[in-house]
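Supplementary Methods, section 5.1.

A reviewer requested that the exact input to the structure prediction be made available. We therefore reproduce it here, unchanged from the version used in the analyses.
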Amino acid sequence: MNLQYRLKEATYHAHRNQSDIARKLRITRATVSLWFTGSTKSMKGSHLLQVADYLGVSVPWLEFGEGQMLPSLQKYRTESSHEAQLHSCKFMSLNPLNKEKANEYLDLLLLKERAR
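The structure derived from this sequence is encoded token-by-token as follows.
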């Protein structure tokens, strides 16, 4: 499943539409339409994070189709220190760009946690 179909599924799930996304992100409807038609194969940086947050889906799922569509924070509340070390090792093996993306995603999750 590519970005185009993941976006459509997430938008349907969130009871939103392309115009809602454009308004929320303060971008043109034409830009959003490019994502939905498949003319643009990827979404970058802050747009990716904002769309995932707005639609309530996980960033890795929206960007790559990896993991679950809906984020699950409960797993990370109870993970052992061994699991935390494994996550740290995985993070350290990322290239600088992906480390930046991972940090942005973690910051977003922390903001959501604080809002609860």
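Residues 74-79 have pLDDT under 50 and may be disordered. These observations are discussed further in the main text.
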